[in-house]
Amino acid sequence: MFLDYFALGVLVFVALVIFYGIIVIHDIPYEIAKEREHPHQDAIHYAGWVSLFTLHAIWPFLWIWATLWRKERGWGFSKLEAEQHDLHHRVDKLIDQVEKLQNEVADLKMQSLDIDVDASAQPTQNKEEK
User: Fold this and answer.
1) Which residues cross the membrane (predicted)?
2) Which of 12, 44, 51, 78 could be joined to 59 by an S-S link, Cβ 3.0–4.6 Å?
């Protein structure tokens, strides 16, 4: 009689440990994401619960998803960021060059207008001198 209750207690204890163990294991990707301040940590948490119902099929992908992000380097595309930084500086230089050229064109237009005004004024002065 005592062994029956003891076996029932062990069975309930083991069932609870397995139940909570599965939940804790499925929260590991979420805990990793939370620790790393992952931008998609809520999605990883919800997907962990969904993976319980998909017989753990997506859980390895959640682990990978959670471990790819690092706060100090993001997704790890530092080369892409460096290229974008270089492109940004090149665009800034081109904008400066375009503004300089626009100023030069405006100055040349003003000079050509001054020359045209002077040229149109000279023939009238020549007529008056004669």
Assistant:
1) 6-25, 46-66
2) 51
* Phi, psi angle pair for 6, to nearest 5°: -65, -45
Query: In the predicted model, what is the mean pLDDT of the chain?
Result: 87
Residue for token pair 């009689």: 1
Take residue 13 and report the two structure tokens written for it. 């204890």
Question: Dihedral of the CA atoms 97, 99, 104, 110 (nearest 10)?
Answer: 170
Residue 68: which of 38, 46, 24, 44 has the closest Cα?
Answer: 38
Exposed / middle / buried, residue 73 (Cβ in 10 Å: 0-12, 13-18, 19+): exposed
Contacts of 28 (CB under 8 A, 6+ apart): 63
Give the per-residue pLDDT at 123: 60
Residue reference for tokens 């800034």: 92
Q: How many CB atoms lie within 10 A of CB 47?
A: 20
The alpha carbon torsion through 46, 48, 51, 53 (nearest 10 deg) reads -60
Q: How far is CA 98 from the centre of its chain?
A: 30
